Amino acid sequence: MTKIIGLTGQSGAGKTTVSEIFAKNGFGVINCDLIARKATENGSECNKQLAEFFPDCFDENFMLDRKALSREVFGDPDKNKILGTIIYPYITKLIEKEILRLSGEYDYILLDAPTLFEAGADKLCSIKIAVLADPEIRLERIMQRDGISETLAKKRFSSQHSADFFKEKCDYVIYNNGEAESAAEQAEKIIGMIKES
């Protein structure tokens, strides 16, 4: 029976780095950001539904302008909720399809999912892991990675859960404040416990 593990955490905490360690240890990895992109491919049903609420973020072929959508929803809880209500069922369906595909190959599958709880994908997981980092470190990483201003990065933070939320909801926490070896050591230790259980 394939075990599904959820990996989540705040923006800029370094989930990708951690998910790579799991991949090296024989876990099948599902990148839910890529799944979200698949759900919002040009002309998709999801896009058509989103365009009803966010018409300025689409062209006539239902091609999504991601930056425009980010500007519109980050920092606006109501719009964020509408976005989630529409997009998450499409994402979950694609995740389930991918789990089915990979379960023949892997004993363990890692869902690398920033919005694990919002999408309800936590229900698919027997173990949940959070990657956390200090706010100033996350801010620096996001500004560099996405080429955005401090204001926009902070706005993005405001729409996310607190570190306490993740500590409460997850079985394990990995702290990734820049010492790569330390994050790797923590991940390796958790991998060992998962494989022994």
Describe the structure in your own words.
The chain is of the alpha/beta class. It has one domain (3-196): 3-Layer(aba) Sandwich (Rossmann fold), CATH 3.40.50. The protein has 9 helices and 5 strands; from the N terminus they run E-H-E-H-H-H-H-E-E-H-H-H-E-H. The longest helix is centred in the middle third of the chain and has 26 residues, at 77-102. It is globular and about 50 Å long. The mean pLDDT is 93.
Which features would summarize this protein structure in a list?
197 residues; alpha/beta; Rossmann fold; 5-stranded parallel sheet; globular
What is the first-to-last residue Cα distance?
A: 13 Å
Count of the domains: 1
Along the chain, the helix and strand elements come as EHEHHHHEEHHHEH
| Unreliable stretches | none
CATH topology name, in short, is: Rossmann fold
Biggest β-sheet strands, sense, barrel: 5 strands, parallel
Cross-sheet strand order for the largest sheet: 2-3-1-4-5
Secondary-structure blueprint:
Blueprint: E1 3-9, H1 15-24, E2 28-31, H2 32-39, H3 45-53, H4 66-73, H5 77-102, E3 108-112, E4 127-132, H6 135-146, H7 150-158, H8 163-169, E5 172-175, H9 180-196
Parallel strand pairs: 1-3, 1-4, 2-3, 4-5
Helix pairs in contact: 1-9, 2-5, 3-5
